[in-house]
Each structure stands twice: as structure tokens, then as C-alpha cells.
């Protein structure tokens, strides 16, 4: 069904694997379109409670946007490339209702790090290397990197990473707060699944409301506290809320209908 990605769904988790290992999983146009479709399908699938995105092979998560595709672009084509990519993939992922965990299994450079940063949080294997090398190519990050990196690591660190075009390793990424956990290559997906499992025990409608509220803090002209109040209020009208509070008072585990 897809040429550049693999998808699977098991025990409430959809796994999306970028699968162009010979090009270090670089994001060409087709891969971005396929990722859009796969994330959309997973988000609409009632049985999917969490999404894990990772790269195939042992070397790379994603080594960036596919440089061979845009090397001869004009100013307007460049602008459109960034706009379309942000709309189809990076903003799309960041705003999904279903939690997305990026399991960074190697190089996450340029668009690769931008994809990982669009996910709701990140974990990494100890061989991971992360950076935004765009200025070494005479361009800047165009898939949200100049915005999301400072949000995650602070302005000074982001400025240094972007201006030097250098890479940081998994431990430094952890110190920076760019990834939440570092583990071995073998344990990376099991850890992602374990974290997804913890998430899935909770109310999916409440999680969707939480994602909206947290994201509101980073939206221009939006009062995040107001969004939180509205989303908080909405929760009181859900079946999950009735079940969660009733189960607590009855001293049993909640069995959320997800509505
Ligand atoms: N776009 C297109 N092709 C890419 C790519 C990218 N972003 N990153 C890697 N590839 C391709 C290489 O061209 C090579 O293809 P080939 O075998 O047909 O020549 C293949 O993937 C393997 O990469 P290679 O460079 O040989 O691996 P390496 O281990 O020597 O180096 C990297 C690994 C990640 C350091 C290096 O590939 C690199 O710097 N990639 C570009 C990173 C980048 O600038 N990304 C931001 C893009 S905006």
C-alpha cells in the first residue's frame, strides 16, 4: 500500500516506520504524503490509542528532507515546500488527538529532528544523533525547527544548534530535555510500547483535550489558560469522565469507553 513506510497495528498501538534505509529514511515528497495518510488513518482508527513513529534500519530515524528533490528549487518553490510540508506532516502530527511518540533510533537531522519534535514527546536509543544542519546547506530549517527547537531546549541552545549545524548525541539531547529517555537500540521500541501502554490506561478523550490545551500555549494570539478552562469543562460532558470518577469512588479500575 505504501512505498516508503511500513505500518502495523497491535494492542492499541499503530507503529509507523519510515522505510527508505538506503537513503537513511530521508523525507521525499512521496514519503511525506504517505506519512500524512498513515497518521490520518491511525488518528481516525478507534482501536489506535497511541502512535509510535520510528525509522527502519540501525542507522537513521530520518536524515532530513530529501536534498536531491529541492536542490534546484526557486524562491517560491522553496516557500511552498515548507508550507506544504508543515501542513501535511509537521503541524498535522503536532495537532493530532492521538498521542504520538517518536522513537529516535539513529540520525535525526533536519526534517528528521523536526518530525521527532512535532511528535508529542521523544525517546532515543544511545546511538542517536540529532541536529538541524540546514545552514550548512545554505538554507534554514523549514519544517518548524526554528520554532519547536527553542520551545523544547530554550533559545540559546537552539540558536547554537542551528548556527553551528552540529549534532548532539542522545545523552546531551536528554540533558537538553529534547528527549525524555535514552535506552539501548534493542530496548527502544519496547520502551516506546511500555510508555504507550501507560498512556492507554487513561481516558483518550481527556488526553486529546490535554494535547489541545498544551499546544495552545504555543499558538499565536491564543490564550492557553482559556483553552484549558474550555477543555476542562468539556471533559465533564464525556462518558470517560463519568466512568473515571465513578470507578475511583467505587475503588475499581476505570474501563474508559473513549467517548
Ligand atoms: N537527502 C537525500 N539523501 C540523503 C540524505 C538526505 N537528507 N541523507 C542521506 N542521504 C543518502 C546519501 O546521499 C546516500 O545515498 P547514496 O548511497 O545513493 O549516495 C545514503 O543516503 C547514505 O548516506 P551517506 O551520506 O553515504 O551516509 P554516511 O553514514 O556517510 O553519513 C549522514 C550519514 C547523516 C552524516 C549524511 O548522510 C548526511 O549528512 N546527510 C544529510 C543530512 C542533512 O543535511 N539533512 C538536512 C537536510 S535539510
From TrEMBL:
CDD domains: crotonase-like (cd06558)
InterPro entries with a match to the protein in the record: ClpP/crotonase-like_dom_sf, Enoyl-CoA_hyd/isom_CS, Enoyl-CoA_hydra/iso, Enoyl-CoA_hydra_C
Keywords (A to Z) from UniProt: Lyase
GO biological process: fatty acid beta-oxidation
Classification via Pfam families: ECH_1
Gene3D superfamilies named in the record: 2-enoyl-CoA Hydratase, Chain A, domain 1 (3.90.226.10), Lyase 2-enoyl-coa Hydratase, Chain A, domain 2 (1.10.12.10)
GO-annotated molecular function: hydro-lyase activity
Keyword Metal-binding: no
Xref: PROSITE patterns: ENOYL_COA_HYDRATASE
Family, as annotated: Belongs to the enoyl-CoA hydratase/isomerase family.
Protein name per UniProt: Enoyl-CoA hydratase
Taxonomic classification: Bacteria, Pseudomonadati, Bacteroidota, Flavobacteriia, Flavobacteriales
